[in-house]
Amino acid sequence: MTTTIDRDASAIGGLLVEPVQTQGQLAIVQHVVPPHGLGAPLHTHSATTEVHICVAGRIGARVGGTDRVLDVGELSVAPIGIPHTFWNPTDEPARILEVITPPGFEKYFDDLRKGFGPDGFDFEVVGAAMAAHDIEADMASIPALLGEHGLVL
After folding, report:
1. What is the pLDDT of residue 7?
2. Residue 2 and residue 89: Cα distance in Å, rounded?
3. Are 99 and 15 in contact (CB under 8 A)?
4. Tell me: the pLDDT tens digits for 9-32?
5. Beta carbons of 45 and 73 less than 8 angstroms apart
6. What is the tens place of the pLDDT at every residue in 103-126?
7. How far apart are CA 52 and CA 59, in angstroms?
8. Which of 43, 64, 119, 140 has the greatest CB tally within 10 Å of its CB?
9. Quick check: pTM over 0.90?
């Protein structure tokens, strides 16, 4: 099976490879990160490893206590239990592929979309999606990340 990367995919987790395509081993989603956009608060997973691969633009990534900027073709690995996040430090949109193993967490992005509306975030819906999909978020990390890296929500 061949999959083409949709350059216009949703900013929030466009599913590219479904677990059924990998005999339940992994899923791959694509994120389009707007200029100076924060991808997520600092967070951990108790059962999921994520690999973020920069495929367009540049991506800032924090894994554990280390920040770095990824150029196209570079990646970061966020193992189970290690706090991590990502952002776009530039004035241009950026794109990442996120490899999720074992799969399951990719369903979070469908639930997360339900928390975005014309009036902003519905924190109750977003919180329920996080709780249901193996995310322990440090919401207090958001102001520091925004300030340190010149980001917006």
Report:
1. 44
2. 32
3. no
4. 455 678 899 989 999 999 999 999
5. no
6. 888 888 877 777 777 877 777 888
7. 9
8. 43
9. no
Give the span between the Cα atoms of 96 and 59, in whole angstroms: 8
User: Are 98 and 30 a contacting pair, CB within 8 Å?
Assistant: yes
In single-letter form, the type of residue at position 38 comes to L
Which residue's entry shows tokens 């890296």? Answer: 149
Is 16:96 a contact under the CB 8 Å cutoff? no
Residue for token pair 């925004």: 146
Peptide bond into 41 cis (omega under 30): no
Q: Give bridge partners of residue 14 from the DSSP assignment.
A: 30
Provide the residue type at 86 as one letter.
Answer: F
27, 7, 141, 104: CA torsion to nearest 10: -10
58-91 per-residue burial string, b: 16 or more CB within 10 A, e: under 16: bbbbbbeeeeeebeeeeebebeeeebbbbbbbbe
